[in-house]
C-alpha cells in the first residue's frame, strides 16, 4: 500500500497542499477559516494521515528530541531508573528522549546530524570536538561525569566518595581488615576503578592496610572462591566493600557456601540499594544514590540550557548516603 502524503489529504479536502501543511503543522500567522481547518483535519483523520516528524524537523530546523548518549556501560537498575525518571520529567515539557548507547565505530556526529535534537545530554563527558561541533550547530549540550567538574553545566557524581563511604561505615563498626569485591565486566571499569580508589584512599586515611581485592562474578562459586581467599590470610578479612549490590549478593551467597556467617564472620556492604538488597538474607547494607534527584537535576539542566539566559540549576546536595542493614 502506497504511503499517504499531504497531496492525498489535499485532494480529499479540496484544498492546496500548502493549506494542508499550514493546518496540520500549526503554522502561525496564517489566516485560514476554521471551517477549512476542520475540513482538512477531518480528511486527514479519515485517511489516517499524520504529518511526518522528519519533515517538521526539516522545516523548523529542530525536533522535540533530547538525545541522551549513554557510554558502553551495562544497563542495570540504576541507569534504567535514571533514564525512566529523566524521560518522564522531560515529557512534561513536550520533549521526547532518544537514548543512544555508544557502541561501535559510528561517529556521534552522524546521529545528531540525522535526528537534529534540540539538546544532547551525555552521561559521560563528550570529546571536545564533538561538543564544539554540536554547539556550533545550535544544539544545547549538557554533560555529566564520574569525577568532580568545575563546569556548571556538568553534573558530577564522585565515584571515589562511594568507596570512601563504604570504608567509613565498616571502620565505624570496628573492622580493620577490608576486602573489595570487584566486577569482571570491563565495561564497568570507569565506575569500579574510581570506587576502588575511594576504598584505598579511606583505608590509607584511617591507617588500615590496603584492601584485599578479588574479582567476583555473579554466581556462588565465584563468591565462595573469593571468600576462601579473604579468609586464608593469617589476618583474615572481616568486612567486604562490594562494587555494587549485585556483586555484594554474590559475596553473601559465597560466604554462606563456605559456612561463614554475615555479619559475625564477614560483614558486607554494597552500592545502589536495589530492591533485592532489602530481601537478601541478611538484608544488605548499601550506599544509596539519589537517582530521582540526579534525574531531576539533569532534566532541569536540559530545560535551562534550552531557555537561553537561564542559569543552570543548583546541584543536589545529598546524593549519597549509607543505608545500614543487617549485613554489617
UniProtKB/TrEMBL annotation:
SUPFAM superfamilies the UniProt entry points to: lambda repressor-like DNA-binding domains, Periplasmic binding protein-like I
PANTHER family the record matches: LACI-RELATED TRANSCRIPTIONAL REPRESSOR, LACTOSE OPERON REPRESSOR
Keyword Transcription regulation (UniProt): yes
SMART domains membership: HTH_LACI
Superkingdom as given in the UniProt entry: Bacteria
Keywords for this protein: DNA-binding, Transcription, Transcription regulation
A Pfam family matched in the record: LacI
CDD domains the UniProt entry points to: HTH_LacI (cd01392), PBP1_LacI_sugar_binding-like (cd06267)
Residues covered by the HTH lacI-type domain: 4-60
Keyword Transcription: yes
Protein name: LacI family DNA-binding transcriptional regulator
PROSITE patterns hit by this protein: HTH_LACI_2
A GO MF term: DNA binding
Gene3D superfamilies: 3.40.50.2300, lambda repressor-like DNA-binding domains
InterPro entries tied to this protein: HTH_LacI, LacI/GalR-like_sensor, Lambda_DNA-bd_dom_sf, Peripla_BP_I
